[in-house]
């Protein structure tokens, strides 16, 4: 990992439903992302963790400008992305990719997986010759651990893990530097999850990739992420080096998430006591800000 900051967000905000409700006349705004700030260094994996509905996917989508932020700044390699026109954004699109939770939903059932992986190469006119493109697709299949002969097959012929490998092959086709992986292993069998996590790590080393890795629990985060950001109701309540988060969690919500990690040993698992989190009394007040509690370690207080 380098010291160079690849991506930086400051006070990022996304509010849905600003318009007033037709019948009630009341504004029903949802602050999906509420003044979120963080940096990601080149070659780093930042984990983004929090329960369902906490704003993780919205953060990922807004970061890639797939959805417009309602406030804040995004900088990529020192270039400000917020406020750029569609055409000005285009050169950055190639650099930033996303992988979704459901590996089947993102595939096209009527397209061979080879054509699916080749498509971005055609759209971006990266490789002109057909034979060269096929060779690149074969290379991409090998990189994600799939036999290149599988390129002629259709999505329904694959297992969940293999489908996610196809999605990863497409995401790296344009040689991006940054990937948002939005719960990429959640829908997979537990036995397959570690393999896909290993693939992410392997590709990071080979290609120098930087990841924002989204998850709803902390179980795989420890092995994959250099730092972790914990999200609760649109806000980051704690962010820090993975070791510090696991050894010395500062926010009550982080402690609750840590206590919810299942343990493989059934005897220990049956003795485990999840710590509840009380939203009414333990949530940080609206005026709270991220305060340092250790090297690179901050808590909302
Ligand atoms: N397109 C949308 N329109 C309205 N509300 C949305 C939309 N997308 C997400 N939300 C709301 O924003 C909040 C955060 O959602 P999301 O980012 O999907 O959370 P997570 O990925 O952590 O489960 C939720 O309350 C959700 O209902
Ligand atoms: Mg989500």
Write structural notes for this entry.
There is one protein chain. The chain is α/β, with parallel strands linked by helices and 301 residues long. The chain has a domain at 5-95 and 176-237: Rossmann fold (3-Layer(aba) Sandwich). Helix content is 33%, strand content 25%. It is built from 11 helices and 12 strands. The strands form 2 sheets. It has an 8-stranded mixed sheet, sandwiched between helices. The protein has a 4-stranded antiparallel sheet with strand order 2-1-4-5, covered by helices on one side. Helix 3 runs parallel beside helix 5. The model has no long low-confidence stretch (mean pLDDT 93). The chain binds adenosine-5'-diphosphate (ADP) and magnesium ion. The site of adenosine-5'-diphosphate (ADP) has 12 residues, from strand 2 and helix 1.
Strand order of the largest sheet: 6-7-8-3-9-10-12-11
User: How many angstroms separate the termini?
Assistant: 30 Å
General shape:
globular
**Low-pLDDT windows of residues:** none
Major sheet details: 8 strands, mixed
Structural class, from secondary structure content? Answer: alpha/beta
Helical content band? 25-40%
How many extended strands?
A: 12
Number of helices: 11
**CATH fold naming of the domain at 5-95 and 176-237:** Rossmann fold
Percent in strands: 15-25%
- Which CATH class of the domain at 5-95 and 176-237? Alpha Beta
CATH homologous superfamily placement of the domain at 5-95 and 176-237: P-loop containing nucleotide triphosphate hydrolases
Ligand types:
adenosine-5'-diphosphate, magnesium ion
Q: Averaged pLDDT, please?
A: 93
Which CATH architecture of the domain at 5-95 and 176-237 would you pick? 3-Layer(aba) Sandwich
Radius of gyration: 20 Å
N-to-C SSE series? EEEHEEHEHHHEHEHEEHHHHEE
